[in-house]
Amino acid sequence: MPRVGNTAIAAVTVTALCSGAWLLHHGADEHAPPQPSAAQARSAVVDPRSAPALPPSPPDRIRIPSIGVDAPLTGLGLTPYGSLDVPPAAKKNLAGWYEAGTTPGETGTAVVAGHVDNADGPAVFYSLGALRKGAVIEVERRDGTVALFSVDAVEVYQASAFPDEKVYGAADRPELRVITCGGPYSRTTGYQGNVVVFAHLTGTR
């Protein structure tokens, strides 16, 4: 797929991630995924630490040790409606990356998305809202390098007010966005928003 800017992604990027089928059958009050607190929101202070950008290389795996994520990555394209496609719901430990955009570790904004749950229970990014600033995200790349990202913020947005430019806009350093559903839950429409993790490259190995 030809590489294009992330602005090609519409605001309805993760609608298909957010049906909440498991909550519908098991009760939202008892099983709702964690949501980020105001303390984890993005601040005006920019973390000065950074690592040199890496050459483009497709990612194969994402690990977030602090919340127990260790998942393979599959390439995602766009649907006919202009939204980001999603991994198959049945594969609950599979995440995806926008393969027409920036690869994780090169200059720009790379995008990873995954389900919060499916009909059988919690999925790959169920605990994403519990992530804290400073946590490490590891992305294993096909060229043998591992890109290490530091979390700058974890925020939740209503779908109707999703900040496209803030999430998908161009960056002058290697940055990463990890997205799943979140916010209030409705039995008729599922989750009403999205949890977004903002991170930037601080090391490699």
UniProtKB/TrEMBL annotation:
GO terms for molecular function: hydrolase activity. It holds the Pfam family Sortase. Coiled coil: none annotated. The keyword Hydrolase applies. Gene3D superfamilies: Sortase. Keywords: Hydrolase. Residues 29-60 are annotated as: Disordered. The keyword Hydrolase applies. Signal peptide: none annotated. InterPro entries: Sortase, Sortase_dom-sf, Sortase_F. Residues 37-52 have a biased composition (Low complexity). SUPFAM superfamilies: Sortase. This is Class F sortase. It comes from Streptomyces roseirectus.
